[in-house]
Amino acid sequence: MHPLTSSEDLLSSVDKPLKVQRCQETGKNYLTCDYNRDGDSFRSPWSNKYYPSIEDEAEAPHPSKVLRQLEQYANDSFDIYRDLYYEGGISSVYLWDQDTDVDESGSVEFAGVVLLKKEIDANTKDAGSWDSIHVFEVVPGSGKSAAYKITSTVILDLSTEDNSDNSIYLSGNLTRQTEKSQTYTDSNSHISSIGSMVEEIESKLRNMLQEVYFGKTRDILGDLRSTQDIEVTKSERNRQQEVVKGIQGL
């Protein structure tokens, strides 16, 4: 299949956490979505090969030569970001040509997706996963200015439990669009701009989720506060704090 034509197409298909696959050539894990898919196979951003292997890989969707070089740079860059900000997890970046190849000046329109996933060990009392999908378009304008449009979705699953059988399970997602115009020097500077925007967007979405879920647990657990004694109130506050810690730990 060819890459989807819009961010809305992808977002309509990612209503559940991203899946992980291993690149047989490099031994590295990567994330799968419809943008690196051909039939039942998925292209690795590390080797540029599809797994499971397909009969005629040359006919499967691949980025152009110049864009593939930029894709490799993007994966190396976001792998550093993932390690710094997630302290674990998996990242994958996929790029695709819009109409023509990207030239060395980076002056041709292209698009891509940044995928990030972090999980908390399901064997512990606190378990959860954070999946973020950033679909972006780069549209160079006049001079050395480019428009960057990103549609970002975060999918959060979080559960906490204790010995008193007071368990909490939360699941949901947020989607936001961001647009910005910035100057660029070459094709690599597009990745730097996208990286800065993703960092800012993820910080905002994390804070929003924390506020939303803290408020939700407060509403659910606090409806009977006027009839509860101080010990129960303290217990509710502790459970709310556990939820916030779970989000911060992803």
TrEMBL record:
GO cellular component, one term: actin body
Signal sequence annotation: none
Cellular compartment(s): Cytoplasm, Cytoskeleton
Pfam families per record: F_actin_cap_B
Keyword set includes Cytoplasm: yes
Matching InterPro entries: CapZ_alpha/beta, CapZ_alpha/beta_2, CAPZB, CAPZB_N, F-actin_capping_bsu_CS
Main localisation: cytoplasm
An annotated Gene Ontology molecular function: actin filament binding
UniProt entry keywords in alphabetical sequence: Actin capping, Actin-binding, Cytoplasm, Cytoskeleton
Gene Ontology biological process terms from the UniProt entry: actin cortical patch organization; barbed-end actin filament capping; filamentous growth; mating projection actin fusion focus assembly; mitotic actomyosin contractile ring assembly; mitotic actomyosin contractile ring contraction
Similarity comment: Belongs to the F-actin-capping protein beta subunit family.
Function: F-actin-capping proteins bind in a Ca(2+)-independent manner to the fast growing ends of actin filaments (barbed end) thereby blocking the exchange of subunits at these ends. Unlike other capping proteins (such as gelsolin and severin), these proteins do not sever actin filaments.
Oligomer status and interactors: Heterodimer of an alpha and a beta subunit.
Name used for this protein in its record: F-actin-capping protein subunit beta
